[in-house]
Amino acid sequence: MATQEIQLRSTLGGYTATGKLHSLSVWFILALRLMMGIAFLQSGVDKVLSGSFSASGYLVNSPPANGSPVADLFVTMGETGWFVSFVDVAVPWGELLIGLGLIVGFLTRLAAFWGAFMMLLFYLGNWEVTHGYINGDFAYMLVFLSVAAFGAGRILGLDARVEQYEVDGQPLVERYPWMRYLLG
Description:
By secondary structure, this protein is mainly α. The protein is 60% helix and 10% strand. It is globular and about 50 Å long.
C-alpha cells in the first residue's frame, strides 16, 4: 500500500483549511462515486421502465404540505404544462444518465453537478426540518459535490483516459482546459 501523503489546502473567504489524505482515501472516494451512481441509475431505470412517472402531483402538493420555503415556486412549476412535460422526461432520464456517468466515471463532474442540483431541488421540495436542516437529500447533495471536487472520475474511470486522449499531439485537457470542468 502506498504511503505517500497528499496535502490539501484551500482558501475561501479569507479562511484556509488544510488536511492530509490517507492512502485509503482513494477507495472511499471511488465508493462514494459508485454508491451515488448505483442509486441514481436504479432510480432512473425504475422510472423509465415504469413509463408512468409524473411530477405534477408532487410539485403541486408535496412542497406546500411540508412547509417548503419555496412552495409557491414548486406549485407554479407544477401548474405550467410545458415545464411538467420537461420534468417528466428530465428526472427519469437525468437520474439514469447521471448514474451511468458516475458508474463508468465519464463526464463525472458534469454528472455530479446535475446530481447535486437535483438533490438541492429534492431537499427544497421534501422540506422536513423537524429534526434539523440536515437530511438525506442534503447529505447526498454534499456527496455529489465531494465526488466532483475530488475528481472521482479519474479513479478507475473513463475520465482519466479521455483526459489523455490526444488531439493534434496534445492531451485533450491541455488543448481544451475547459474540459476539466466536465471530466474528472
